[in-house]
Amino acid sequence: MSKRTNATLLIALLAVVFVLLCGFAVAEETEEVTIISSGSCGTNATYELNSAGVLTISGSGDMANYTSSSKVPWYSNRATISTVKLEEGITSVGAYAFSYCSGLANVSMPSSIAKIDSYA
């Protein structure tokens, strides 16, 4: 075999290995996401916390104000929360809402948010 043929085969082999490795990496990242907690967090506001650590607040109007962090409905799962998504229609973030969420790294807020209460 010529050097050029060997190089072509090596490149083709490396390309196959790369595709296989990428395929396995994608397969590992597609872990099923499930809802681990959900409920009400205001008169017209609800929440869902999924197994990927995403807490989504949806509905309309104000979130409830809580008297301490232990009164927040997702308190027992607070360490698993990494992202909070407040959807359009929510108008306030309730007191203590995300207090002691030690893993929280990302928060997205819509333009409808007009008020963020104490210790949120």
In words, what does this structure look like?
The chain is of the alpha/beta class. It has one helix and eight strands; from the N terminus they run αββββββββ. A five-stranded mixed beta sheet has the order 1-2-3-5-7, with no helix packed on it. A three-stranded parallel beta sheet has the order 4-6-8, with no helix packed on it. The longest helix is centred in the N-terminal third of the chain and has 27 residues, at 3-29. It starts with a helix and ends with a strand.
- Give average pLDDT, whole number: 85
* Rg: 23 Å
Proportion of residues in β-strands: 25-35%
Strand order of the largest sheet: 1-2-3-5-7
Question: Could you give a quick summary of the protein structure above?
Answer:
This protein has 120 residues and is α/β, with parallel strands linked by helices. It contains 1 helix and 8 strands; from the N terminus they run H-E-E-E-E-E-E-E-E. 22% of the residues lie in helices and 28% in strands.
Topology:
Layout: H1 3-29, E1 35-40, E2 45-50, E3 54-59, E4 61-62, E5 83-86, E6 90-93, E7 106-108, E8 115-116
Parallel strand pairs: 3-5, 4-6, 5-7, 6-8
Antiparallel strand pairs: 1-2, 2-3
Features:
single chain, 120 residues, alpha/beta, five-stranded mixed beta sheet, three-stranded parallel beta sheet, 8 strands
